[in-house]
Amino acid sequence: MYFSKGGSGWKGFYVSYPKSGGYLLLSPVGFNPAKNIAVVQVNHWCSGHCGGGGFSVLQKKNGAWEPLPWGGSSCAWAS
CA-CA 20 to 30 A from 10: which of 17, 49, 54, 69? Predict the structure, then answer.
């Protein structure tokens, strides 16, 4: 609607959501075979040249998901 061809873009988005800091986009979640470690890409957009993202690694402990300190490769972006 906002960002499709002929849409109102960021101006229209912020008219509809004036207190918003932008929007988030989450990837499908990848799991290990035991389903106790998950990886998800999290991206944030706040305008045409404002945003960032990267992946998060989570571990399920005592029934709750929490960040897993990750010593492996990483990938992030910022604009």
Answer: 54
